[in-house]
Amino acid sequence: MGSAAGPATRRTAALLVTAALVGAATGCGTETGSGDGTGTGTGGKVTTITALDYYTDSTEHAQWGERLDACGRTAGVQVEHRSVPAPQLVPTVLRQASARTLPDLLMLDNPDVQRIAQTGALTPLEQYGIDTDGYTEGILAAGTHEDRLYGLAPAVNTVVLFYNKDMLDEAGVAVPRTWDELKKAAAELTRPGRYGLALDADPTFESSFQFLPFLWSNGGTETELDSPQAAQALQLWVDLLESGSMSKSVLTWNQADVHDRFAAGKAAMMVNGPWRIADLNKNKDLRWGMAPLPVRQEGQTLVTPLGGEMWTVPQTGSEARQEKAARVLACLNGPDNMLKVAGQYFTVPSRTTVAAEYAEQAPSMNALVDSVATARSRTGRLGARWPKAATGIYTAIQSALTGEETPEEALERAQRIATAGS
Length: 422
Description:
With 422 residues, the chain is an alpha/beta fold. It has two domains: 12-156 and 307-373, Periplasmic binding protein-like II (D-Maltodextrin-Binding Protein, domain 2); 160-304 and 382-419, D-Maltodextrin-Binding Protein, domain 2 (3-Layer(aba) Sandwich). It is built from 17 helices and 13 strands. It has helices at 18-26, 58-75, 89-98, 110-117, 137-142, 165-171, 179-189, 205-217, 228-242, 255-263, 277-281, 319-332, 335-345, 352-361, 366-373, 386-401, 407-419, and strands at residues 48-53, 78-83, 105-109, 144-145, 148-149, 151-152, 155-156, 160-164, 195-198, 267-272, 288-291, 309-312, 348-349. A five-stranded mixed β-sheet has the order 2-1-3-12-6. Helix 2 packs across helix 12 (319-332) and helix 8 (205-217) packs across helix 16. It starts with 17 loop residues before the first helix and ends with a helix.
């Protein structure tokens, strides 16, 4: 569900899309496969539309199928729902754009929206009168390209601090709120066979995703990776590793690996997202909690990266089909669906009033709800150039944690990577 991971691994293929989509999107004036709902004509009433996503898990696919069917009925159409594996989604869209057979409704991981919107392959949503009141700035920014909104998410997620309640109670350690408290707690919780903290520092976008809260909350930005604030954030990770509070294996762990160590009792705390909750709940002997990630010092505002998927309306060449797809999209983003999606996947409704209602219904999710309220889009400042910055970040993490470079040196190189060719 949009983990960085979600967030990260799902985004890599999107780098392939831009050049080919430009030509394909501008040639979509022909109503190939659109018009009558059967894919064989260009006139008549639209009775069927198509939807594409990456929800291939059988349970998840069925749940989204039911939701699309219900929203299709409100729009007066049948929704033909197809899912492809996450790494194949953007290449599939690329092929469909080239063949002018884009789906009528398309789900995208939120960092991909701006990249594909810039090609002209998506339809701006404002022309359909879709209600956008009550969404946080970060959510709207994630779906916006050049001041036009192209995607909306029923629910979103971010990263938080998971902690083992029994381990903290046994050690007499409070849930950390600042970096100093985090270092102290991680050190006191470290035992033979157990580390105080686990996080993802591998050479992928997942580690960049996990680093952003430390960077952003300290006043650093992805546009100035060589700043003192960025170096302070990276130094924290170095300190945690060098003190022995984290395993050196974090350099190769992805978010699933981090979860496995925490679930097995080999880490007392972990940085991860709510997409791990379903698996954590299967372990009835594990008493765990969630808290907002610590900031460097009290008074700083926690800023985390926004995760989650957005629904978009591609340019298919058929205004009638696009109108129907937009009605389904609006239904998916209605308050009732937001609550259902959040409840099923342990995410947070995208509208603030619905999120507040959700927090009352599920108090254990308050840390996540609070973190999402100030979460920021990864593409909000750099747009389609975000992957270059993400590459620079995880390269710096690897270099600094292995001792190859100081945090300052590693981030100076990260800045060069991020701005290369710009």
